[in-house]
Amino acid sequence: MPTSKLIDEIVENIRKNTINNLTKKLDEVDVLILDDIQFLAGKDKTQEIFHNIFNDFYSKKKQIVLSSDRPPKELDLLEARLRSRFGIGLVTDIKKPDFETRMAIINSKLREKSEYLEYEYIEIIAKYVKDNVREIEGAVNIMLTRKNLLGQDLTEKDIYDGLEILGYNVGKESLQDAKIKDADTMNNKSYKSFAKILEYIANYYSISISDIKGNSRKKEVSVARQMLMYIAKKHYGWTLEKIGTYFGGKNHATVIYAIKNFEKLLKSNTTIYNDYHIIIQDLV
Q: Which end of the chain, N or C, is less packed with Cβ atoms under 10 Å?
């Protein structure tokens, strides 16, 4: 709960002289998670009661998770005895999500809503929306709202327009300029060219892109997906994490299995071997 809500409950129970009721209520709790613990500052009686609550949880080996806007030792307006107790456990700094994490968050939000955006558009959003999950989710929501209002797939311009509405200074940067090319991208291969391969292979096998990026287990879809993962690793130098993210959040084990299985198919299946080399000669 927010610390402000706990403060309200403490104040209300003090007013009614029923603080034991709050103690009994918390006694049934196994894990106490409080957001913005710094709001206890300046509230001496509330700090005293929370000190007792904390000690009770600690003595019973129950879990307490606290968040604040600074480390425990810098919470100057809290009593020293509280600051020292807050520093007993694991203290960690929650930083802004990095680029790969932002990509994963966007993909997760899209899956929750059973929606789809082009990989390069997800990249653009992840490049500009950096601060926190709430802002990332807000950006995803506005893009999907624009998509539904337009009644068609979004364009690069729609993505930039949406970001400008949210207050991001994107200027007139092109899609190519906006792309993040990290050390894993080799031979100057761009995400756009890989998207072309994805489209080509989907047409080649007469299947949809959404099936390839989804969880379909049809034989022709699985072969196409494994071929693309193999190409992404062998010819583009993508990491397993990047490949998994591109294909809808697949985990490392799934990607490794797909690549190794396709390597076996290349050696044992003449048709797949020929298909692969036709595609490679045409596009890579």
A: N
> Which residue do the tokens 């809290």 mark?
78
The beta strand positions in the chain, using DSSP E, are: 31-34, 63-66
Q: Which residues lie below 8 Å from residue 139, measured CB to CB, with a gap of 6+?
A: 125, 129, 162, 163, 166
Q: What kind of architecture, by CATH, is found in domain 3-86?
A: 3-Layer(aba) Sandwich (3.40)
Return d(Cα 24, Cα 30) in angstroms, integer.
Answer: 12
Q: Residue 174 — pLDDT band, cuts 50, 70, 90?
A: very low
Q: Which amino acid is at 143?
A: M
Banded model confidence at residue 181, pLDDT cuts 50, 70, 90 = very low
Structure tokens that stand for 125 in this block: 């959003």
Please give the C-alpha separations between residue 152 and each of 144, 145, 165, 240, in angstroms, as whole numbers. 10, 11, 19, 32
